[in-house]
Design brief:
alpha+beta; Alpha-Beta Plaits; 3 domains; globular; isomerase; PsdUridine_synth_cat_dom_sf; Sm domain-containing protein; pseudouridine synthase activity
């Protein structure tokens, strides 16, 4: 099969305190991808390459650090294989990083992957760690709020500092409640609020393969006499938006007071983003959170299963139908896509399946963007066949959400 692009994985680590999230934020937001795009254009221009596209493997919020995670880079195959001069390119990439934004980011490897490989869909698991810094006495905690120690400065952007009295055994008891498969809708940032009249219950099943607290240490390795350090570690194939930051909030509270165990059980019994909010909670800060690793089966680099066969360029300026993981159906003329695979539709509408008695409503949207991490299926629409369907007469069940965006 001939492909119009060669695809590569670039493996990165970066300091989250210097960026406003992984995805491109635009304007004055300074996301990771906002930096990577001009940086890689600078590097590749020296090789007379003026076309490339980048996609991140995950979303991270402002302040979240990354120790090992890839981005996808597509380069038209007419330029040949750039991994033939890999060592030279790695030096050039890191030279540009260091000169334009010192100590912010490092590219420590890159390699060729199959054009059918997807950095999001083929991930086997992601491992996160949240660093917690607990005062040994309440007096020290209150003192350092107003007069920070030298340790406080080294930890300022790299851990979450909390008061004395945290019981790690109780926190691990809460972790055991969350371990395994649960409907974790209470821990997601709600993307469906505008559609609640069509959805009675969110089905957001996620399996946490590992969730626990372990002993940590200061980030610089120098003993801190006033604080204890803990690592909250969680491993899963995928996470919903803000899931870890919301989970750590209630788990830490369980480590302080038994009454929060009841609230944790309520969140699992009544899985809904509003449950978390109505119980008076908010997500923890992102500054203590680290994406430690994204792990793949190496066989998928060459022979990915499933094979993501169609390249999005083949759908440009064609009428497409998009099915999303949260059970929505959009139709429109595809005008483009960006580095996070957000699909840009023109003259679009949403087909809302209202039940067997109400038919299908077509809601005009005009110019609309479908979030890339929510796209499940995209395909070219047969317009002649589509025009023959009288949608208001269709009696079908509503689409059910089968995943939600990471």
């Amino acid at each position: 099969m001939n492909h119009i692009n060669n695809r590569y994985l670039l493996w990165l680590r970066f300091n989250g305190s210097l960026f406003n999230g992984f995805a491109s934020s635009g304007g004055n937001a300074y996301g990771v991808m906002d930096f990577l795009n001009p940086a890689m254009e600078n590097v590749l221009a020296k090789k007379n390459i003026d076309q490339m596209k980048l996609w991140p493997c995950s979303r991270t919020d402002t302040g979240v650090h990354v120790l090992r995670a890839p981005i996808i880079m597509n380069i038209p195959s007419k330029y040949g294989r750039i991994d033939e001069y890999k060592d030279e390119l790695l030096k050039e990439i890191n030279y540009v990083f260091d000169n334009y934004y010192p100590n912010s980011m490092e590219c420590f490897d890159f390699h060729y992957v199959s054009p059918g490989f997807c950095a999001r869909k083929h991930a086997r698991y992601r491992r996160y760690v949240y660093r917690l810094r607990v005062a040994k006495t309440q007096e020290w905690y209150e003192h350092f709020l107003h007069s920070p120690s030298i340790h406080c400065f080294s930890e300022r952007f790299y851990s979450y500092t909390t008061k004395a009295g945290f019981n790690v055994e109780k926190a691990n008891e809460a972790c055991r409640i969350l371990s395994g498969i649960n409907n974790i809708a209470s821990f997601m940032k709600d993307p469906l609020s505008q559609r609640r009249k069509y959805i009675k219950k969110l089905h957001v099943q996620k399996e946490l393969n590992l969730v626990r607290f372990t002993q940590g240490e200061p980030i610089n390795g120098i003993e801190d006499p006033h604080f204890d350090y803990y690592n909250f570690e969680v491993v899963s194939r995928s996470f919903v938006r803000e899931q870890i930051r919301r989970m750590i909030r209630i788990i830490v509270k369980c480590g302080y007071e038994d009454r929060y165990f009841d609230q944790l059980k309520i969140m699992l019994r009544y899985p809904d983003p509003q449950t978390f909010i109505e119980l008076g909670h908010r997500a923890m800060s992102g500054k203590g959170l680290y994406l430690v690793d994204v792990v793949y089966d190496k066989d998928d680099f060459k022979n990915p299963m499933p094979y993501m066969a169609q390249e999005l360029d083949t759908y440009l300026n064609k009428v497409v139908s998009v099915i999303t993981g949260d059970g929505r159906n959009f139709v429109g003329l595809m005008k483009g896509y960006d580095q996070t695979v957000n699909i840009i539709l023109e003259n679009s509408h949403e087909r809302v399946y209202r039940g067997e008695q109400l038919g299908v409503e077509q809601v005009e949207l005009g110019l609309y963007v479908v979030r890339g991490d929510n796209v499940a299926v995209i395909g070219e629409l047969d317009e002649d066949l589509d025009r023959q369907i009288i949608f208001e007469h269709l009696k079908v069940k509503p689409l059910e959400p089968f995943w939600v965006p990471n």
